[in-house]
Amino acid sequence: MKTLYTIIFIFFSYLSIANVIFVNHAAAGANNGSNWSNAYTNLQLGIDNATNGDSVWVALGTYTPSQYGFVMKEGVKIFGGFNGSETVFSQRNITINTTLLMQAVSCNYLIRNDNNQLTSATVLDGFEITNGNNNPNNNYCIYNRIASPTFSKCVFNMCSSYYGSIYNYVSSSQFINCTFKNNTNINNGIINNNYNAESTLTNCNFLNNVGSCLIANSSSIGFNITNCEFNSNSGGTSVYVWDGQMLMMTQCRFFNNAGSWGGAVYNRSVQSVIRDCIFVNNSASSSGGAVTNEYYSPEFTNCIFVNNSTPYYGGAIRNAFSSPVIRNCTIVGNNAGLNINGYIDGGGCMSNHYSNTTLINSVIWGNSGTGFHNNGSSPSISFSCGQVPGGNNNVNSNPMLLNINNPAGGDGIYGTGDDGMRILSCSPAANTGNNTAVPSSTMYDLVGNPRITLGTVDMGAYESQSNCQLRRYVRRDAPGPFDGTSWATAYNDLQIAISVSEYGDSIWVAAGTYEPPYVPPIPVNESFVMKDGVKIFGGFNGSETQFSQRNFNVNNTILRGVSIFRVIDNSTNYLSTMSELDGFVISNGGGIYTWVDEDGITHINYQIGGNGAGIYNKNS
Fold it and tell me: What is the model's pTM?
């Protein structure tokens, strides 16, 4: 029986090895694809000799097809990124082992899938695809007609073609973890979807391309795009849908793109849903700094539009003959209307041209002019805050944003918890929206927090996670409960009070000695960590009702280190001058380490003593 099991194991091991075909342009063996030594030197030969379910492993180097291009094969997975010695797939390194598919000037195609009826089980993974932008007048770089392959972890670099880098016709192609950069396709874009074609893109990046990145023509189905980024593309609107059936975008980011009608998106699709997307610093030479919507009824939910611009109409959004629904969006600091004929109020937030626009649960602030330009339109604006008309449950006042001058927050990344476009917990936009306007499918806000936290939805793309409380109290001997709302119920842990505070809050700390939290018995690298925009005051006796009653000379409030590490460590929290530490003694540790984001943290009325190592300020 043991012998039988051994035979079965060897048999299945042989089948596993037999399902891999090897290709290496530099191989000098039998050229039969059986292993690296005897690898095929011609990639197409390796593909042709594979069958459904096989994998083709391709070693680093440059591979050029015949005049009519490489042809993929149903169910065959083609992987680049090997060095030619690997025995297991996990040894592959696509970053080091560049495997290049190069289209020669004489080739009409680089990859040609013409009616070979490929499905998503057919995969090209781990290649760089290029023609050096030397073939702008050639027909195609990648051609999919009645073929729907998957492209994964591929880099499309300097790949130009008259009909687009990738031309899809009756195709449902997929692109996963791909990068598209430095491509020039003025006429037909990078991915060009034509008759009955749709593309699904997930975790892809488009960088420094000239011409539209995605084009869906009138007979196409359109695009489904998730977690993709479009950055510094020009010469054409990044996503251009012309009478396509569908545009679905979720968690996408558009930065610094330039186009004509819509710096980031031109949207003329029958069905359009755009959720959790970010539009920042885009510009349009005609109108619609970030987005132009024409006809139909697109939906925008949990999106932000920041610092987009156009010399004409619609700094953030231009609507023409359409009926968009814009809910829980934040539209701040956009500009429109300074053209060659002088200033016009083009609607820094939005321009509506014969459109029935619905704007609800949104924050509008700091946009040029009155914010809105309406021609033949009377938009329905309700449950919104800031630069909005009165009535309809609108709040025409400052929405109290976290930091309008630093919209990405200290980490410089939009869509994270420190974004400056967040509303403060005491904002008039907090808990004043309309719950019935929130789709049942919208469970979270832009940064992933629960969309409705305190019973009523907030206005804007961000949901505040705490009740309005501008001052918190800390007292070492407080008996509890510890909610920080008064001296009687003060926190007894300073770091907890800091952690639950937000920009604009202050913390009053009673006399006593406070140590950063640590896990006994041996503290290692424990420190207090401050928070941007939070002012922390020591020197109280624990009974004051007015700040003027504080006496820090009498009421010693000591921050004591528990190791030789820093007592206060501000090395990674990007503090601005709105952060303050006032009225403390810093003792028994490595002092204060600060790496600030702006001009420096404010330290007032404190002293270093008892083995404190002083202060180190970087970028301060």
Answer: 0.82
